[in-house]
Amino acid sequence: MGHRPTTRTSTPAGNGQGAPALTLAIDPAALAPLVRAVVAEVIAQLEPDRVKIDESRLCFGEEEAAAMLGLRSSQLRDERRRGRIAASSIVGRRVRYQRADLVRYLSERRVNGG
Is the CA virtual torsion 99, 105, 107, 112 positive or negative? Predict the structure, then answer.
């Protein structure tokens, strides 16, 4: 007995109709203006929030830092005690978080292609 050639048709996900899959070729140079426009729009949307942050400040107290991260102060304190975020202890055992440490904490926890 000889072997018969097998023919397979690619189908788009969920189609099930046996239609050929779609192949799309896009010139990257043609996308460049669209990408620039989207990036400019996102930056413009973020700008009002950026100017609200006082970049001259060196550090933040636990309440402020937690609010910046969208956490309760107790959650931030627990993260610090677990060694997941750096902090400094100043006079009177007050805890302060540097802006760079807050950014690093967020960056290390990116979930979407980060």
Answer: negative
